Amino acid sequence: MTYVCNYNLFISCFVRILGTRTKRHYYKMKQIIIIGGGIGGLCTALALQQKGLTTQVYETVNEIKAVVAGIILAPNATNVLARLERADQAKMLGMELEHLELTNATGKKLMPVPNKEETIRDFGFAMIALLRSSLYDLLLKALTNNTVLTNKHFEHYEENTNGMTAHFTDGTQAAGSVLIGADGVRSAVRQQVLPQVQLRYSGQTSYRRVANMTLRGAQAHIARGAWGSPIRLGFVPIGFGQT
């Protein structure tokens, strides 16, 4: 069985599915293969391990290093972290945002966005802004030792009556009951599952940086985005003197 996941939708669905399966079903599963050691892959591995399933993550890079950039956790993502018992730690690593404001290029508000109190009331959590690397390290440390194997370039998979076999470019193989593709926008797993699906360039390029600066006054806990044509600009405080 093969799954192709994305960070928010798949993980929340997979955690929910696991919560409804019987122990008898779990025991029939052998090792779970996850291709891709990003945030989605680590969340999946942690969810599976908490259900007592043996999980191995295979990552292409030689050394695990998260992108130096900020990330905003929407309430649905934080609810997933809560299921993984990591939401409180995530809040300590970043900043709860009071508000998100979207405007056009002249500063006119584009649409109303719920504030912190409304978001917590409706969804259980506020939006949390933090370093992507902090979230990554939090997930990595929560996994059992040696869960993530690096320098493993996925080539293709085979499915048979015994389950799944992943093949890597170094000639090695990995066998498991389920293979999950979490290998990003240029997913090699997706390419094999859905070869007819091609990447489509949206015409947008994003540049992200982390600045060592603290926003003051009303800006201190607000994420802002100004949408112009064709340029968009945004800034988000992530706490600890960084934006």
Could you describe the 3D structure shown?
- The protein is of the alpha/beta class.
- The chain has eight helices and 14 strands.
- It has a five-stranded parallel sheet with strand order 1-12-2-3-8. The chain has a three-stranded antiparallel sheet with strand order 4-7-5.
- The longest helix is centred in the N-terminal third of the chain and has 12 residues.
- The protein is globular, with a radius of gyration of 20 Å.
- The termini are far apart.
> What is the helix fraction of residues, given as a range?
25-40%
Terminal residue distance = 42 Å
Strand content: 15-25%
Low-confidence stretches: 7-22
Specify the biggest β-sheet: 5 strands, parallel
Q: What topology emerges from the helices and strands here?
A:
Elements: E1 2-4, H1 9-20, H2 23-28, E2 32-35, H3 39-50, E3 55-58, E4 70-73, H4 75-83, H5 87-93, E5 95-96, E6 99-104, H6 116-123, E7 128-131, H7 132-142, E8 148-149, E9 154-160, E10 163-168, E11 173-176, E12 178-181, H8 188-193, E13 222-227, E14 232-235
Parallel strand pairs: 1-12, 2-3, 2-12, 3-8, 6-13
Antiparallel strand pairs: 4-7, 5-7, 9-10, 10-11, 13-14
Helix pairs in contact: 1-3, 3-7
